[in-house]
Amino acid sequence: MRKYEIWMADFDPRKWHAQSGRRPCVVVQNNLFNAYSPTVMVVPLTSIVKKPFPSEFLVEPSVYNGLTHTSRFLGSQVMTLDKVFLHEKLGTIEKNYYKLVSEALSLSLDIENRY
Question: How far is CA 10 from the centre of its chain?
Fold first, then answer.
């Protein structure tokens, strides 16, 4: 598993407002931790396309990323999963999304202490 890869993950059982079911997610954990940790930090994607919140953006499907639908990156729902819940690598998001991932996570986690 590498940062920026898209994997199909099992998010069940669902609790309250958290994403549920089998869905794609983006690995956001750094590659050093990915190599040694039994867990991985991911951000789920949803095919429900609506106006994104500031910590969200749309990812267009491509052969490179393996998505079949336009998907919304849910930057406010960073989750840590055991790697056994990630089943299939779909692809990798394109480099033009890297900055959007960083901005979404920075806003969600308030990295710069603005809020």
Answer: 13
